[in-house]
Amino acid sequence: MSTIEVDAPARHAHDRGGARAFADRWPFRRKLNLLVGVPLAVIAGLLAYLFTDLVRQSSSASAAARLVRDSAQVARLMDRVEAEHQQAILLSTRYESGDARPSTSAYRAAQHAVDSQVAEVRAAFGDRLPQREAQALRGVEGLTSLRTSVEQSYLPADNIDPAYAGAAQGLIDGLGLDRNADLAETFTGNLLDSLLRADAAHGAFETNVFAATTGDTNALIEFTSAVGAYDLYTHQAERFGRFATEAQAERLSGIEHTRAQRKIADAYAELQVDVGRLQTDDQAQLRRAVREALADYPAYPEQAAARLEITTALIGQIADRADAAADSARWRAGLLLSGSLLAFALWIAFAVLVRRSVVRPVQALTGAAREVAEVAGRELARVADDDTEDDGPPRLRDMPVTARDEIGDLAEAFNRVQTTAAALLERQVLSRRNTAEMFGNVGRRVSNLSTRQLALIDAVERGETDPALLERLYSIDHIAVRLRRNADSLMLLAGIRETVLDAGPTALSTVVRAALGQIEGYRRVRLYAASDVLVEPDVIGDLTLMTAELLENAVSFSPEGSPVEVTVRSSAEGTHVVITDHGLGMSAERLAEENARLIRRERLDLVPTKVLGLFVVGALARRWEIGVELTRTPGGGVTAEVTLPASLLVTPSAGAPAVTAPAPVIEATGPAPAPARAKTPDPAHEKTPADGTTSDQPARAEHGAPLPRRIPRRA
User: Fold this and answer.
1) Checking CA distances to 545, which of 192, 278, 471, 513 falls within 20 to 30 Å?
2) Which residue intervals make up region (Disordered) (predicted)?
């Protein structure tokens, strides 16, 4: 076979100058890095910065909205504390007016309301409760000693006011609204802080006015505190108006225009008219002042409820404003993300268009390389020990050279390599086909010659009556049978399959005896047939060859004095032929390797082995789906177990006689036949029993016994 070498024409590069020549000399990897890597890095950095900032803004706005909504519970707690403050002032005034056992139920109900609201605040904030706010809540719960003192006896108002005022002030300070970074950007912190402080100041003003109207010894102090609380409320309301909308400021001023507030304002105005009569030591006047204060007291809870309603409504509006800021931040993040992704997609599209001039030649080279790899893979698969015919020589397409840079040089070199590889593959295919054909022809010739030789020996045996000469003819006959077996193995390895169907179903033990007649050390073999079955006619020849190869290995690789046992038995898994020798055996690694060779397909020229028969056994086992497994023999040696599937066996019908085919088989006989029989050998009387059974004693050939007799093939 001749190989045509295709050389690409020489390419002469055009002289170019300037920036274009400089860019053409760049490797394509640098071009890709410049066109794709740098823009991607810049865009990725910009997107990361934008995403981080927008996500932070959205998260801060969401956290601010949650804090504002949770602060409504703090406003309710301050209202409950102020209500308890008023009840404490009222209870202490009753003690001062001479009431020895005033009722404490209202005071204790106010305490219970405060404690319940403390639990509500903790539940609303959860694990987001600020540390200072938690400390303020503990301060509210620490009013227990003051509560006990108020319940037991009279306590001056100037001792009661600081505790409750400090508790309310601590609740506002604990939120840290003016120092919260999440609230600072939208002025939400100052807005909410001024609202809560205005609410607390007005509540303190109401309580101080009520305490001053009771006429106790500290009424003047309470009036002074009321004036200061009202000034503080006015300041915080003005501060709230600077950050709030006009509608929100007007809504807060509604605290001063309720019906209850008008009553409280009238009482405050009366106190301003005559400050000198605020306090008295006369018990009768004190009790009268207490009764008048109690008559006006319903206005104070009503005003507190109205004030709390206005405060919580404004807190809800502030929370809605924070939610709107969070939504706005999310929308901005979405818009910026969409715009960035759109710009990124456009840039990627542009980069793809630029890169195609570089990537497409590489992809074409990759496709051509894959085609070469697929062709080489098919050739490697064909190397397996199978029966497929070799296809024609592979045809590979040339790689078009479309670039003038390093990729163009690579394409030209690849075309030359591809042409050479195709020529090598073609030569390999032809060489393998010729080698297989040569071995097949040699095997066929040897098989034909041995068949003719056996026919001549049969003719001589029929006319010979001398026992000594007849025994020599039997030895020559046995050697010719072994020679034909080797020729059959050679044709099998060469991929030639010949099936001769001139026989009917045959007993498995007869097949084993036929295989026994094709080996040299048949005298050491002992056959045990625990059960027997009939084998399909088309598998008899291959099964005989397989069994002969396994027997040959068992005899060859075991000591001369050791026996080789062959057992034929049946089980639920199928019919088994077990061949056991007692030689040196194989290592575990070698056994695993040989068992794998019996399953997978390998070529003898690529995976040589000293045990040539196992290649034949593996090929036949795969052809007929027969299970063959090699294991260690206890005490040393190898045991080969052949498992025949049910598809290769014949099940005789009920009442039908067993069929014994007139196939050319070898029969392992017992002791030497009588001279009279030896003088007149009759093939018709030398066949195996028709029922295919054997005795339970081992059928063996003692030393000096005649060779296994081959029944000649009948015309």
Assistant:
1) 471
2) 666-715
Q: Give the 3-state DSSP-derived string for 75-135, with helices as H, strands as E and coil as C.
A: HHHHHHHHHHHHHHHHHHHHHHCCCCCCCCHHHHHHHHHHHHHHHHHHHHHHHHCCHHHHH
- Cα–Cα–Cα angle for 388, 390, 392, rounded to 5 degrees: 145
| pTM of the model as a whole | 0.47
pLDDT tens column, 287-336: 777 777 777 788 888 988 998 899 999 988 888 887 887 788 778 778 87
Greater confidence, 76 or 653?
A: 76
CA 545 – CA 514 distance, rounded (Å): 9
C-alpha 669/C-alpha 198 separation (Å) is 124
- For residue range 661-708, list pLDDT tens digits in order: 333 333 443 333 333 333 333 333 333 333 333 333 344 433 334 445
Written as six digits, the tokens of 277 are: 């009569």
Using CA atoms, how far apart are residues 709 and 715, in angstroms rounded to an integer? Answer: 18
Q: Span 518-534, mean pLDDT?
A: 88
Instruction: Report long-range pairs for 68-72 (Cβ below 8 Å, ≥24 apart).
Output: 68/188, 68/192, 68/315, 68/318, 68/319, 68/322, 69/315, 69/316, 69/319, 70/121, 70/124, 70/125, 70/128, 71/175, 71/177, 71/192, 71/196, 71/315, 72/312, 72/315, 72/316
Can you read off the two tokens belonging to residue 270?
A: 């009366």
Q: Is 498:487 a contact under the CB 8 Å cutoff?
A: no
